[in-house]
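Protein modeling request. Please complete all fields; requests missing the sequence field cannot be processed.
Requester role: graduate student
Desired output: 3D structure, token encoding
Chains: 1
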Amino acid sequence: NNEQLLSEIRMLVHQIYCGAIIGKGGQHVKELRQTYNLDIKVFSQCCPLSHERVISLRGKPEDIIECIKNIYNLMATSSQQPRGSPLIQYDPHNFDVYAVNEYGGFQPPSGVDVRSGYNSRGSYPSSGSRGGMYPIQPLPPLVDVPYGGGPGLGTRYANPALFTSTRVTLPNELVGAIIGPRGTKIQQIRQITNANIIIDDQAIPSGNGGGGGGGGDRIITIEGTPEQISRAQALLQQAVRQSGLWRP
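Delivered output (248 residues):
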């Protein structure tokens, strides 16, 4: 059965390379399909909160390997190379079950009730992790702190009427993960989201005792539109997860 001999690989590439891989009028990707006898699809939408797009390759394993080598060569010789802003790699914690078909993530396993089995970010409620682009267990959300809001920031926002503020807390020992060396990480998040993020200098007593050792919590104020605030919170959580400092 030839169907049983077929494999599929989904690889992530920086969106800037996709033009070189597809080629003018789809010429390059058409040649790749014909040369290696593969089903190849370059998804048009980036994975959630990232600069990466999915390329799906389906066929015989040896043909897939040779095709990937060719794709890497197209990327290496492309006139378009990432410059300036840092690459934001896809984090499986940001799996979005409702947009999975648009960006090329894997469908949830059969038998999982999407309506009750996923939270708003599309992550499994059970413990454990799943490789690739399947959803994996997220960190608990940052803790909301009641806040009365504040004045808008004028022309910085397209519609100042949408400006709002929220405050969240983070264990003091994890703050370094979101600040980064010489403030590079927090500055990157500010630039990506255009949100105003302020970290209090002084820690307050911890309200839940989670996230590691002592040291209390730091209040983080995030100002912007609801969309900017939501994205900033997601990137702050991602920075903590990727730092390796979080111990559930």
